[in-house]
């Protein structure tokens, strides 16, 4: 690979940064404060930029059960939370495991009937009684839909479900969420194709079992990562994304995720319109708020055909909008191309919510300083 003079300068600068600081990505989380209240377990309010008084219905990010809530705040410059907060929206995060409590070990019933409803009520109360706009990725989107169906009286303004599979026949759900596929330079392209064919069909990333095996043998740490870094040393944004994704996948939970997968997708019940949770039937047709569904064109975990049934499964919703964006399972939410695709769809959706529910300003909150 021959670099241009500019590429060589960029590579030298990135190498210096790596030697001096050990990384290129700015992994500082967006500043947030806990929301007080009996039902506000694990709810945090993001601090707005200095001088900004957020307006409009509040936004609550719902992480997938048993997965890090950091998916919405992967790194500065490629953080959906940062993007939404800086747009002047009052934004919150449900951190399912803020202090070792419930989130990582909670089952489907606790998420649908306890954790998420409590968070929704706490956010609405904190925002002056306004209804809440939910944003859920992967199983977070599925749980948001189930909570709305289980209790139509919850103060929910709308739901944006990103890469949320409902038809298990069309979805491949690994034990671990996959790592986005990263391009391999030409000298290794043949090896990459052979490896992909030998282990599994493309899942929008590395399968969980293979990922574990790679980490156990140390190949990723001692061979693949350094080579990948050298091959893209002139591209700081690419390398920063690798670092952020690596940190995210290091904290994925396996056992709890598999348990919730089984509960959600046993007998493909969701594709039929609902499922039983703790002896009570939850029907998706009872969702009575507008829904935005976004599927990733390259997503093997939640392919387009596994998300598309939401159009027919939500007859009670006043509006169901379906969009297809570029990227795999994590890429569609927070990949480098998501800024111009998924985030643009979400911006328009949240703007429409502000029009429907009004601009009501909330009290001035502490400014972002980090």
From TrEMBL:
Protein's UniProt keywords contain Hydrolase: yes
Keyword Electron transport: no
GO MF annotations in UniProt: hydrolase activity
UniProt keyword annotations, A-Z: Hydrolase
PANTHER family: POLY(3-HYDROXYALKANOATE) POLYMERASE SUBUNIT PHAC
Name recorded for this polypeptide: Alpha/beta hydrolase
Species per Swiss-Prot/TrEMBL record: Actinomadura violacea
